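To: structure subgroup
Subject: Chain for Friday's discussion

All,

I'm putting the inputs and outputs inline so they're searchable in the archive.
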Amino acid sequence: MNKKIIENHKRYLERVKLYQRFGYDLEKERKNILDESLPIAGRILEAGTGKGHFALVLAKAGYQFITFDISEEEQHIAKLNLAYFNVEKSVEYHIENGEHTSFGDNSFDTIFSVNVLHHLRNPYQVINELIRLLAPKGKLVLADFTQKGFEVMDSIHSLEGNKHEVGKVGLKDMEEYLTKKGFSVKKANSVYQYVLIAGRGSI
């Protein structure tokens, strides 16, 4: 196996252990988001690849999907993460700006965006773009941290000498926004993660 893939996986395992020190099981939380979103069908899009933590869960579960991110560097790490488990062929990678993507209207039946919302400078513009991409009977799944989850992230970033920046728009704001746009919304949560599942029909 490629040396870069092995070295990256070691860093991934170190990251998992660091999260676990604060009570956050990274793989379990991502799997829970997927489970809450079932059933999943049709064309799948992940908005915000990041380092591939949720993409890995989707790929290991056997789904074929498209994922995009604005950062080539982050997505490169994601590719290495998935390559270690030999599931990288399940994924089509794109570099896109979430405010204006190159995909056509109504292109996807299921759209995921996991732990991305709090990073966005223009969250409503991104959500409007995801709505444009969503098929009429499609499902939009947004997940982000609870207060406890944000506390864990703050602790981890502080250890690393960084500050975890958080925007002013949260999932509660997005729930109200989507409801006003005619979406039905279902909610779920763990101690660390909120999950919001929205659709124009039954979900």
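Points worth raising on Friday:
The CA atoms of residues 63 and 90 lie 7 Å apart.
The first strand starts at residue 44 and ends at 47.

D.
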